[in-house]
Design brief:
Blueprint lengths: L2 H17 L2 E5 L2 E9 L8 H9 L4 E5 L2 E8 L3
Antiparallel strand pairs: 1-2, 2-4, 3-4
Amino acid sequence: MKNSQVSALVFMLVLLFSAGKEVVATETGHTCTEEIKLPSWKIPDCSSLCKTRHGDEATGVYFRGGCLCSYPCLSS
């Protein structure tokens, strides 16, 4: 495989991993991510949508036709 193919494969794996609900350990606690699916005709304000759903500390980005939210969560 060429270096560019390996890089593309690694990038795709990282995106797939971050797209679902995952809990990641950080120094200050835990961060959860959630992908919120949206109708294709609606371009959302992802940051506002995530803050409404998960609180003021949530952030969001438009990702694959939906919003990818990151927010602090309780450890399990």
